[in-house]
Amino acid sequence: MKLNQIPLKASLGLGLCLAFAQGASADVCVGTCGTLGANGVVTASPLGGSYQYISTAGGVVGAGQLAGVGGTNGSQFTTSTFSANAGSVLNFYFNYITSDGAGFSDYTFAQLVPTAGSAITLFTGRTTVIGNTSPGFGLPPNAPGVVLTPPTTAIIPGGPAWSPLGGYSGQCFDVGCGYTGWIQSTYTIATAGTYTLAFGVTNWTDQIWDSGLAFDGVTVDGTPVTGAVPEASTWSMMILGFAGVGYMAYRRRNRQATPLA
Predict the structure, then answer these.
(1) Structure confidence by residue, pLDDT tens digits, 44-53
(2) For residue 176, which phi and psi values (nearest 5 degrees)?
């Protein structure tokens, strides 16, 4: 059905939905995303409490990938749009967890994406049989000015028990599986502007032996980035939408109450 063929009452409801979608800046998940407390090998982050996660288990083909790198199926979480000043400090913690290994190089990443300009890589992690899992081999380097604590991290080996891995929780496909533990990423934003922050994770070569990413404490100058409320213009659109819906309901009640001649 074309938009101009939708009855007025339905159009008002659709307009209200579009107010949320167009005016509000909202977090977006493609694939599998969620929130957990301490679970299996993944403890609460250094901040305590719950953390967010994404996983390739139940992921979407093509999601959670770096441009030009590829992958198979995965998930991506993108934050609300936020503003930052030059010199603002972006900070968060992450933990990469993988049941895969031995040449099946699943990977994860976070990028700061300006409204205008190129993506800024804040960390990468990749399954490997030797060396450091973070930063990840064969992936874009971290942007200048990114500080990881610790700066390099090998895998803590073994089949990682973590429920977002689904049926592969506690399983291990050869050398390389495990988890990194919590790593801190800190970046001083060079240019004032508006940004989103994208977290991705993808399987590599196959769609089995899943991997995931836990992350927590996403802040700019200490202010949380995720969970933004609608902007003032959005509230105005919502109020108009509710008023329109109420008016149509009023007219419908009056019409039903009026006896036919």
Answers:
(1) 999 999 999 9
(2) 120, -20
